[in-house]
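User: Could you check the structure of this?
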Amino acid sequence: MNFIEAEGYLNHLQMHKIKLGLEAMQSFLARVGSPEQRLRFVHVAGTNGKGSVCVTLLTALKLAGFHVGMYTSPHFSTVRERIRLNDDYISEEEFATLAERVIEVLAGETITYFEFTTAVALLWYEKRQPDLVILETGMGGRLDATNVVTPIVSLITSISIDHQAYLGDTLAAIASEKAGIIKENIPVVAVGGQDEVTRTLSDTAASRHAPLYLLGREFSCEKRNGALWRWRGLAPPVTGEIDGLECAMKGAYQYENAALAIAALKLLSGHGFPVDDSTLRRALLAVRWPGRLEFFRLVGADFHKAFPALNRQTAANFLLDGAHNPDGVEKLATTLQHDYADLPLTLLWGAMNDKDIRAGLARLTPLCRHVVLTRAEGERAAEPEYLLSCMLENERHKAILARRPADALTKAMNLADGGGLVVIAGSLYLLGELRPLLVGPIA
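Assistant: Sure, the predicted structure tokens are below.
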């Protein structure tokens, strides 16, 4: 099997619906000798911020001299982006070889796309033997395919309403699913937030005798002058004070994500993973996470490579964000108001049918001069005409429709006319189709 054939097999698995449960992964891993038992993990769940926390941990530990694996989802242009070791992604050849092994072991048994990639990742990490693997859940926690590991630290980012059909339609229900990654006697770093979330996390941790370190209780992040902030830890072993910190990643909520990562690093230091304050400062300035409030400017040759037909323009500013649920949209809107209030905004938006499209567009379109509606990739994607019907009536005059994302991007560029900021948001699938056109593939 070559990589193209492996990708084709995976794409066939996309036809199978989402299935939560551990049985398939437990059965597969037992048949290949339980590779997860020979690896050390940090397990990360939550609604928003998982990827940012994962890459912050990876960057800090890498700069401290460790070899760290990171498994995240979804990807933009190739499934290989999900599986990496420091700065290196799994190669096409290695992915194909391990995919063939997974298929042979399954012997006709059908599993989901996410279960398959998780199996490939665990086999690759067993082969490479990194010092640590940062493992991000897919959708939930309790029944997530990654919840077959026993980590040395668990981490739960902010929790908000999303994937209600699978996780429940209340914060308490969703928090209970996310808290399912909490293991007996394993420390947990988490964002509490609303009372029902804090209560659910606290009760679950107590029932499993897992020490719980909550942002705002055992540790905090405090804004200082300008972009600088301070981390403070108040309860052993999450103690100390680190001042003068600055995040390269945009968005005020990145302080929260960075604070979680620092608290987790404090716990990891007791397991042989020390990261000094100087390294930590460098890491926060070096963190990059594509598609999450990702700003870049295309100028000159880079611009004309992406837009060869737009002869009268020579530059453009872009902000790419995977905001697709209410919490993510609110954070994007706050960033636009705080950091880009002086720029005319053109919104390029595509979304899945099962998201709160009306609320998202109602929050963002009043901030924008133009809106381009398109159809993101995927069978659940909403049509542009439906997106238009979801807009506030007094905002619909701003909108134009383009079903193909590449056409929508050209229309957005024409509307922006070389000035202001083009904001691409609504779905990571949409970003996955457009980002490679702008800056090329990640892996």
